[in-house]
Amino acid sequence: MDVVMLSRIQFAATTIFHFFFVPLSIGLAFLIAIMETMYVVKGKEEYKNMAKFWGKLFLINFAIGVVTGILQEFQFGMNWSAYSRFVGDVFGAPLAVEALLAFFLESTFLGLWIFGWERLSKKVHLLCIWLVSIGTVFSAFWILVANSFMQRPVGFTMNNGRAEMNDFLALITNGQLLLEFPHTILAAFMTGAFLVTGVSAYKLLKKQDVQFFKKSFIIAIIIGMVSSIGVALVGHQQAQYLVKTQPMKMAATEALWENSGDPAAWTVTAFIDTKNQKNTGEFQIPYMLSFLSYSKFSGEVKGMKELQAQYEQEYGPGNYIPPVRTTFWSFRVMVASGSLLILFSLYGVYLAARKKLENRNKWFMRLMVFSIALPEIANASGWIMTEIGRQPWTVFGLMTTADGVSPSVTAGQVLFSIIAFVSIYAILAVVMVYLFIRVIKKGPFEVVKEEVSSDPFDKEGYRHAIS
Amino acid sequence: MLSLNELWFVLVAVLFVGFFFLEGFDFGVGMSTGILAKTDMERRVLINSIGPFWDGNEVWLLTAGGAMFAAFPNWYATLFSGFYTPLVLLLLALIGRGVAFEYRGKVEKEAWRKTWDVVIFIGSLIPPLLLGVVFADLIKGLPIDQAMEMKASFFGDIVNFYSVVGGLTMVVLCLVHGLLFTTLRVTGDLQERARRMARMLMVPLAVLVVAFFVLTYFNTEIFNVRGGILTAVIALLVIAFALAAVFSGKKRDGWAFGMTGAVIVLTIASFFIGLFPNVMISSIDTAFNLTVTNAASGHYSLKVMTIVALSLLPFVLGYQIWSYFVFHKRVHEKGHLEY
To answer: Per the record, what is one GO cellular component (chain B) (predicted)?
Structure first.
C-alpha cells in the first residue's frame, strides 16, 4: 500500500476512534451540568450523587477523548504536510482558537470540578461544570469551522499556490457550518442522553437504586427526545444544502448514476454495481428524494455520470466519484439509527409521563440498554458519509486527498504508527469498557462512598461516619 | 516595533516556554513517582499534587502546536512530518500518561496500580527526552530541501550525540524542577526526601547543562550569530542555577522552585533566540532555511489571530492562576485523594 492509502487509513482509524468519545463527553458534560444545577436549585443530595455518579463515567470517557485529541491536532502536520502548507493559513486558525478558547477552559475547570467539591462554594462549583460543558461545545464549534472549510471553502483567496484567509467572518458563518454544528452538537447531546437512559434501564431491570435511576432516566430521556428529533430536522436541512454545494456527495449517497428525473424517487436499498455504474434490485419510494432534496414533491436530482462530466470540464480529467457503496450505506445506517432513537425516546417519554416506569416494560428497557450503541453507530457513519463522500477532494474543489499527503514520510513510518496507535486504542477500548462496567455495577452509592477518606478524623470521613 | 511575524514567533516561543515551565514540573513529578515514592500512598500523594493541573499544562503544548499551524504553516508542516517517528513515540507516551493518571485509582488491585505506575513513569520520562532531542536538532540544523521538505534519518540526523545530551538535560532538568515542586506540595518525610534528591541531582544536572552548552557552541551556529545576547542568557542561567542550589539548601523551597523554573525558561528562550529569524535551519543550504517570513501565514490571518489571542490570553492566564490558588494547600495522606 502506498503512503496515501496508509495515511488515509491512519486518519480514518484515529478520527473514528476519537469520535467515539468526543460526543459522549459533550453530551455527558451537559447532562451533568443540568443535574448539578438541580442540586444547587433544589438542594437535594440525590442530584449531587447523580452528578458524581455520571461524572465518574464522564471522566473515564473524557480521558480517552483528550489524549486521542492530541493526535488529531498533530496528524495534520505529520501525515498531511502538503495539505497543511496549502490551507494552514485558513485551517490553522480555528485549530489554534480551539486550543486557546476551548481546551484551556475544559481542562482547567474540569480539574477544579473534580478536585473542588470541598474547596469551592456550591455555586462556583456548578459554574465549573457549566464552563466545562461550554468548553466542549466551543471545541466542537471550532473544529467544525475547520471541517466546514474542507466541505465548502469560503473566506479565502488563492495566493502563490496556496489558500490564504481573507474573511474570517465568512469562515465562522459558513452555511455548511451553520448546519453541521447544530447537527453534530445535538447528536452529541443525544449520545450522552442515551448512555444515561441505557445504563439507567439496565439498573432498573436489575431493580437496583430504583429511585436514583428512574430520575436519571427521566432527565435523560427528555433530552434524548428533544435532541434526536432536532438532529433529524437539522439533518434534513443539511441534505438540501448538500444538493446545492456538494451534489456529487448527495448523488453518491443515493447511488444515483443517472439524473433522477422529476419527481425523484428515493432508493431505500439497492445492489450497487460500481464497475458498470448501475444498480440492481432497487427498492424505491416515489417522490421521496424530491422531498428530501427540496422539501417538495417535485424536482430533479443530478446523477453521478452527469456530475462527473461536469467536474471533468471544470477541474480536468480524473475520477470525481467517491466510493459509492460506503457513502450510500453509511447514510442509511445513520438515518436508520437516528430514526430508531426518535421512536425509542418518544416511547420512553410516554412511559415516564404515564408514570409507567415502575412496572417497567421489560423488552423496552432491554432495547434501551442496547440503544447505548446506536448514537455511536449513527455518529461514526455520519462522519464516514461526510468525509468519504467528499473524496477525491480533501478540500472540495481545491485540493485532492492524494495531493495533501506528506512527501517526506515513508509508508513504513505510517504503517508503524498505524500499528502502534491501533494497538494502544484496542487496549484503551477494553480498559474503558471494563471500567464503565465496574462503575455501573457498583452503582451510585458505592461510588460515592469509595471516595470518602478512610481516616475518621478527616473532615469527609467524619461527615460520612455521622451520616 | 515588532512585525506580526515576529510577534507570532515570540508568542510561539512563549507558549513553549510556558509549556516547559508548567508541564516540566509535572513530568518531573511523574518521574519521581518511580524513583522517590516508596509506598502506594506516597505515589498517590505525588500524583494528587499535580492532579488538578497536568491536563491544563499539557494544553500549552497543544496551543503551541495550534499557533504554529496557524501562524507558520510551513514550520508546522516541515517539523511535524520531518519528525514523524519521534512524534509518534511522543504521542504514545502522552496518551498512556494521560489515561494512567485518570485510571490508576479506579480499581483497588495492586497489579492494576503497578501497571499504570509504570506507564506514568515512562510516559513522564519520554516526552522531555524526545522534546529535548527535537529542540537540539532544530538549532543544529536538519536536511531540509528546496521544497521545505525535511528528509531526516532517525539515527544520525535526529538521534545523535548532541541531541541525546539535549534530551537527557531536559529530562534531568524536569526531574529536579518536579522534585522542587513536590517540596512545595507535600509534607513530612516525603518532602524532606524530595528536597534531598533534588539537591543530589543538581551536580549531574550542572554537568549536563554545561556539556550541552559547550556542545551547542561546537555543533551549532547560534553563538556565531547571536553570541552576545546568548552569553548574557547563559550568565543569568548560571546565576539562577546557583541560586536554586542555595535556596534548596536553606529550605527556601518556593524560591528554589522559582529558580529551576528560571533555568527552564532561559534554556528554552535561548533556543528561540538562537533560532531567530529562522524557524528551522537547513543543513543542506542556508538558503533553504525556514524563516519567520517564508514559513508564515498571510498578513490578514496573522492579524485576526493576534486580535483573538490578545483578547483571550488574559482570561486564560487569569483562570489558570486562580486554579493554582484554589489548590494551594498541601496534599497529604489524610486528605481527599482522588487518584
So the answer is: cytochrome complex
pLDDT at A1 over 90: no
Residue A465 has pLDDT above 50, yes or no: no
* Nearest CB to B66 within list A73, A457, A460: A73
Residues of B in contact with A171 (CB under 8 A): none
The answer, yes or no, to whether residue B259 has pLDDT greater than 80, is yes
* Residue from B61, B63, B294, B332 to probe the interface with A (highest A Cβ count within 10 Å): B63
Interface of A with B in 102-121 (CB under 8 A): 103-105, 107-112, 114-116, 118-120
Residue A46: count of CB within 10 angstroms of its CB? 16
Q: Residue A73: which of B62, B81, B338 has the nearest Cβ?
A: B62
Do the Cβ atoms of B66 and A99 come within 8 Å? yes
- Per-residue model confidence (pLDDT) at position A449: 54
Q: What is the dihedral of CA A56, A58, A61, A67, to 10 degrees?
A: -100
How far apart, in Å, do the first and last CA atoms of chain A sit?
64
- ipTM score: 0.91
Query: pLDDT tens-digit profile of A219-233?
Result: 999 999 999 999 999
pTM of the model: 0.92
Cα of A381 to nearest chain B Cα, Å: 25
Please state the domain extents for chain A. 3-244+326-466, 247-322
Q: Do A60 and B103 count as a contact with CB atoms less than 8 A apart?
A: yes
Q: Give me the mean pLDDT over the A143-153 stretch.
A: 95
User: Is residue B324 helix, strand or coil?
Assistant: helix
Contact B248, B108 (CB under 8 A): no
Residue with cell 486580535: B307
**β-bridge mates for residue A267, sequence order:** A284
